[in-house]
Amino acid sequence: MQPRNMSMSGVVDLAAVKAAQEAKAKAEQARAEAARQGGGGAVSPADLVIDVDEAGFERDVLQRSTEVPVVIDFWAEWCQPCKQLSPVLERLAHEYSGRFVLAKIDVDANQMLMQQFGIQGIPAVFAVVAGQALPLFQGAAPEQQIRATLDQLVQVAEQRFGLTGLTVDPDAEPGADQVAPQAPAGPHDAVLEAAVQALDAGDLGGAIQAYKNVLSDDPGNTEAKLGLAQAELLQRVRDLDPQQVRKEAAEKPGDVPAQIAAADLDLVGGHVEDAFGRLVETVRRTAGDDRDAARLRLLELFEVVGADDPRVTAARRALARALF
After folding, report:
1. From the candidates 43, 72, 82, 275, which is the catalytic residue?
2. CA-CA distance, 121 to 107, in Å (whole number)?
3. Rounded distance, CA 225 to CA 230, Å?
4. In the chain, is it the N or the C terminus that has fewer CB atoms within a 10 Å radius of its CB?
């Protein structure tokens, strides 16, 4: 499975947003299943640092990343900086006590993974969160910098993906709970998978209809709501000329359709606060139908980013102030 990059600097990767919702659902289902079976879901300290190869990558990294951030240490026996960095990462993995898992990959024995991640030199450190890969740093970085990066990683994993880490039990058997139990298939999984395939193929109309079909039967389906909001956003911006849209928005601050179109582009481009701020300000200075149009589009963009995102929470407060 080809990893996809995800930034932690505030950019909204729509694929990552969808993965975040799926990761939250899977984590909740796994915890519920473990509780039903009477298991505590605890791992041994030995499970916090694991050796991973190409054969076990999907199980040990991709699946595991729906429960906890997986930090990947790409190393080789002949690499002297690796011998400085790896012990630090291993020590911190135990110190963070389940907030992340360290996966060690020998690049000499796993050339395909090295190529998939685009590794140009080692040591190289990546993270995978909810199936999304992102680079952390390259080279034997100072421990203070490593700690700051890991702190940011676990914060993002918790706030955006609902991943609070693993429970560590010194008495647990190593490998006893290496992968969370798989949740049973839902009644709409086939339709949702078809919608994802349509979305990946660029068939936005087909994806929109598939998500609507699910919501007609299950109006509260979180994945369908998110998928529909994402597909509709992509459909709206597909034929826009970004340069022209931004020019009109800058020249006509009172033109509500121009501000709405620019906000859509802002969000797709990863400028979340800009998109929200633009529409909040439009709500503030308009009235009647224009105000309603801006407000409703802002609520739609909240759906794309996700209700748990702190930027949505802040924008909701700003919207309330603008309305009242």
Report:
1. 82
2. 10
3. 9
4. C
Q: Which of 229, 245, 321 is nearest to 283 (CA)?
A: 321
Q: Please, which pLDDT band fits residue 4 given cuts at 50, 70 and 90?
A: very low
Strands (E), 169-287: none
User: Beta 70-75 vs 124-129: how paired, if at all?
Assistant: antiparallel
Nearest to 284 by CA among 238, 315, 246: 315
- Active-site option among 17, 50, 72, 79: 79
User: pLDDT, tens digit, for every residue of 212-228?
Assistant: 999 998 888 888 888 88
CA 255 from chain centre, in angstroms, equals 33
% of the chain residues with pLDDT over 90: 47
> CA separation (Å) from 8 to 77, 101, 150, 207?
30, 18, 11, 28
134 is catalytic: no
Read off the tokens for 111.
């050339």
Q: Are 296 and 232 in contact (CB under 8 A)?
A: no
Using alpha carbons, list the distances in angstroms from residue 106 to 50, 54, 127: 12, 10, 16
Q: What is the pLDDT of residues 172-187, one digit of tens each?
A: 777 655 544 444 556 7
For the residues 113-136, what does the mean pLDDT come to? 88
Q: State the Cα–Cα distance between residues 264 and 248, nearest whole angstrom.
A: 14
Q: Half-sphere exposure of 178 toward its Cβ, with a 13 Å CA cutoff?
A: 19
Residue with tokens 């918790």: 158
In angstroms, rounded to a whole number, what is the distance separating the alpha carbons of residues 194 and 120?
Answer: 36
Residue 126 has φ and ψ, to the nearest 5°, of -120, 170
- At residue 136, what is the residue type? L
pLDDT band at residue 153 under the 50/70/90 scheme: very high
Instruction: Determine which helix (DSSP H) or strand (DSSP E) holds 172, and give its type and residue range.
Output: none
Element spanning 76, H or E: none
Is 79 a catalytic site residue? yes
